[in-house]
Amino acid sequence: MTMTASPETLNRLALLDRDGTINVDHNYVHTRDQFDVIPGAVEAIKRLHGLGFSVVVVTNQSGVQRGKYTVEQMHDVHDYLQDILQEHDSRIDAFYYSTAMPGSPDIRRKPMPGMALEAARDFNADLGRSVVIGDKTSDIGLARNVGARSILVRTGHGRETEIGGGAGETAIADDLTGAVEVIEQWLREGW
Ligand SMILES: [Mg+2]
Prior knowledge:
The protein has a single domain (10-188), classed as HAD superfamily/HAD-like (Rossmann fold, 3-Layer(aba) Sandwich), CATH 3.40.50.1000. The chain is 34% helix and 16% strand.
């Protein structure tokens, strides 16, 4: 018997930006003290799993190369987020990060597609049936570069992105909770 992966057998990803989307963007967040979860985000992540998405974080962390914090500190912050989620029977399925500086040719730094392509490979996912959620032009650009849908959230830098015209072709929601509601509407429409 030959197994062929049809789109229906492939998984769906919700690719979440971190700072300004899950947690308050205090600029170069790198300690547990600085990690303030945006209200509703924990429940929203849980709902994404309930809708059948694997939930991954895709985050630009140039602060590492800028010398503002270490990669170990970044991992500790991610462990902290996992602890918070675990208390609510939820989780991030994987973290993808790029320490590349803005303007570098690195293909992993958003909006370049590298991290999303890695996630698609790791999760056997169809990016065309996946969604990127974030607060910056680079998040919307990532979605465009991999053929995923996108939702701009108005938390973090989202309002500036929206007003500045950086949003381009994207859905917009007030926050991660609103983004889940957008996705639920898409699913009702047969996406
Ligand atoms: Mg962000």
